[in-house]
Amino acid sequence: MGIKDIVNRDVVNIDNCESEPIHIPGSIQPHGFLLAIDKNTHVILYCSANVREFLDRELKDVLGKRFHDLFDCEDELKLENYAAGNEFNDSRPFQCHFNKVGYDTLVHLSGDLLILEFEQHPEKMPELPNLYIQMQKFVNELQRTTTLKELCQSISEEIRHVTGYDRVMIYRFDKDYNGEIFAEAKRDDLEGFLGLHYPHTDIPVQARMLYLQNPLRIIADVDYIPSPIYTIVDGADNQSLHLGNAMLRSVSPIHIEYLKNMGVGATLTISLINDGKLWGLVACHHYSKKELPHFLRHTALLEGNFLSSQIKVREASEKFELSKEIDSRLQEVLKVFNSTENIEEYIRHHVLSALVGADGFAIIHNGRLYRQGIVPPDEELLKLVRFLHSYDKPELITDNLIAVYPNAREIVQYAAGLMFFSINKLKNDCVIWFRTEIEKTINWAGEPDKAIIKDQKGLSPRKSFAIWKQIVKEHSRIWDDIEINAAIKCVFALQKQFTIVDARKEEEKQRKLTEQLQAVNEELSNLNWIGSHDLKEPLRKIQVFASRMLDKERYSLADGTTDLIERIRRSAERMQLLIDDILRYTRLSNVESHFSGIDLNRLMQEVMSDLDNAIEEKNAVIEIGPLPVIKGILFQVRQLFINLVGNAIKFSRPDEACVIKINSTEVSINGQDHFKITVSDNGIGFDKKYEDAVFKVFQRLNDASVYQGTGIGLAICKKIMEIHHGSIEAASVEGVGAEFFVYFPINN
Amino acid sequence: MSQHFKNYTNVKIVYVDDDVDDRFLFTEVLREIDPDIALHTLTNGQELINELDNIAEQPTLIFLDVNMPGYNGFECLSYIRGKRIYDDINVYLLSTSATEKNVETAQNLGANGYLNKPTSYGDLKTLICNCIESVLST
């Protein structure tokens, strides 16, 4: 029968560090010994080499033997009972004796094998803490401590008190398994590690898996020489033994070196598990070798389990406390919003950045930038805002701006992370909270050297903690959900505030405009008055006196003088017409007139008689088709047609008999039915390009000395049509004639 | 110009206007129509009221300028129409601009007419003539 060891000799190097097979080392720590027996036959198939020391037997006298060959039959019976009862219970180890030495033996199944790990029962039983007392102490702590941190602190102290390790630390992991020393109890002479951070690479993923599987792990002496496990060479493929659940399992050489680098001699590690995830670890360090009897280990484990059970409750209650705190800050913010509309005031109160624990805060409103605290320089900030506004979403919440915005490297000292909310994309309006880099705000340990040093021996664990710093570089603290919610509420309130402010400003603007308009209107009616009296009086006098001279003194005046006086009279007369027309124009919309039915056939007869002299003078022929009854203001509609027909007569061609046609049709404009009245003539017409211009005040296309008029007539027509909710258009061919179309809405 | 040959001897006219030019023109026009017509020109409403209450013989016609300081034309008209003893007096209002509203007010207050001050001497003469004619024919 041959015997061989199953030590795993794969070289660990930097590339397989993450995949180091730490569950099948093929060796154990030598402070106990290991047997693996067939669960049915109890034949010993594996044993650790140190059975020589513990049992004083050679390997060949152990391997291949049955359990009862070594131990009492009584013990074997006990083992069978233990195994059959499935009492593989860490808290109640199987106890047996060999050569009058008592052993606490951990038993677990690994495939068809029962793995037995023997550790000597301490000669002097330590004073075991009474479970009842321990529980009561713990409940007291629960009540005394308010925060999770306080609870962790008190538990670390209790564990140190019970176990006597030099240093007991509680690690807490972040979402990426970067660690932070959250609580610490230590010998007074040791340097404190509290608050230090470690990168997730310290505890690789497979180690985390094992921590989930085995909540307790002990290394009694980092300087131990592993005891190899031997098996019988019998052709069977029993080459490796899965020791994932074994307490004595030999430790990864990388981990050992890591501990050695820190000067640690022995450790105890307890997993803290929350929601099936590794929340943290209780890491007990001793600076010399230290074995811990089974019962004390389990006392410590119990503390760890207590703590695990409290994590969720405490975290929830701390979240609740935080949300209460933030809520009260939010109330304060809203109070400030209510007290003033001045954004400068918001900035001055500092409540806005305090609200979400930001280092800086900026608002852009109506193109103005308001800033507070640590905020990138204006130019960089505006660049950033433009980028954020061009981003897909109206908000961006990140603890790593560089990942989104490449230019962030230049402003990382101001804005490693941010919460951005767009308020008005077009105006660039937005709200931003900034956070600086996390390494600026948190302690970190060690020198920023290379963490993993590759030397001739292969892989050596890092000697500094700087990796953590590299990992969190350019990151800010993460924005908590509660903080994000508060920010959203705040932005919402701010948005409402801005809307109110804008509406009020708009209102104020409207009010001022209205005032101005009223003033202008008053001015205008003054103008009416001036026009109607003060201006007209002297004009009338000029005309009357001129006509008196022409009437009475005609024969006593020199010929030239008569002509000059006639010119004076004509100019005054023209001025008079202008004033009358301007007044008519400005008065149109001031007049409160009622719409009534107007029979255009009848109205046109009146217009004809008004224009009687002109028609006669030009020998004009006016053909009037059947016209409708429209709704309108009588004197205005009358004025309208007097102007239109008057123009048609006025601008007739001297070489052509003046023919004017007036017709009506019905048309639809934008779904509204209209009467379209056309006044067309065969006069001089005008260039097509003036079709719009003719409706402007004082727009004259012709020589005033030939065609008298003020240039206001068509402007008046246009205004009249506006008042009638209709419109007017012109079309003309120069030298052929002109057409004017007026549209009166039907049923209006 | 047939007016010359008519008998206007018994016509007494009062013309009230604060404007010196208009008083001048009116006086001249009336003289041309008939120098025998008795004309009394006054410069404001207060004078008219004083005059009316103090003179023994009532005027046939009163021409009132609308826009005058103190009592304006409408107020004078109201005063006159408020006293039954003046019922026989014909009152015409004169103004530079005849807005519809003014014409209506004048009518409501009992004016015999509302006249636009003409812009030519000849028109003025015709206007005054017509007024006198229409008074005499009633």
Question: Could you give a short account of the major beta sheet of chain B?
Answer: 5 strands, parallel
CATH superfamily of chain B: Response regulator
**Mean pLDDT over all positions of chain A:** 82
- Structural domain count of chain B: 1
The interface involving the most residues is between: A-B, 17 and 16 residues
- Under CATH, the homologous superfamily of the largest domain in chain A reads GAF domain
Low-confidence stretches of chain B: 1-5
Secondary-structure-based class of chain B equals: alpha/beta
* Oligomeric description of these chains: heterodimer
Please count the beta strands of chain A (DSSP E, at least 2 residues each): 28
Q: Count every helix of chain B, treating DSSP H or I runs of 4 or more residues as helices.
A: 5
Q: Kindly state the number of beta strands of chain B.
A: 5
Low-confidence stretches of chain A: 444-464
- Cα distance, first to last residue of chain B? 21 Å
Helix content of chain A: 25-40%
Number of helices of chain A: 20
Rounded to the nearest angstrom, the distance between the terminal CA atoms of chain A is 118 Å
Give the amount of beta strand of chain B, in percent.
15-25%
Structural summary, described in words:
The complex is a heterodimer of chains A (748) and B (138). With 748 residues, chain A is an alpha+beta fold. Chain A folds into 4 domains: 2-120, 2-Layer Sandwich (Beta-Lactamase), CATH 3.30.450.20; 131-225 and 250-319, Beta-Lactamase (2-Layer Sandwich), CATH 3.30.450; 335-453 and 462-486, PHY domain (Beta-Lactamase), CATH 3.30.450.270; 592-745, Heat Shock Protein 90 (2-Layer Sandwich). Chain A is built from 20 helices and 28 strands. Chain A is rod-shaped and about 165 Å long. The relative contact order of chain B is 0.18. By secondary structure, chain B is of the alpha/beta class. A 5-stranded parallel sheet of chain B has the order 2-1-3-4-5, with helices on both faces. In chain B, strand 4 (90-95), helix 4 (100-109) and strand 5 (113-116) form a beta-alpha-beta unit. Chain B is built from 5 helices and 5 strands. The A-B interface holds A 532-533, 536-537, 539-541, 543-545, 547-548, 551-552, 572-573, 576 and B 19, 21, 25, 28, 67, 96-97, 99, 117-124.
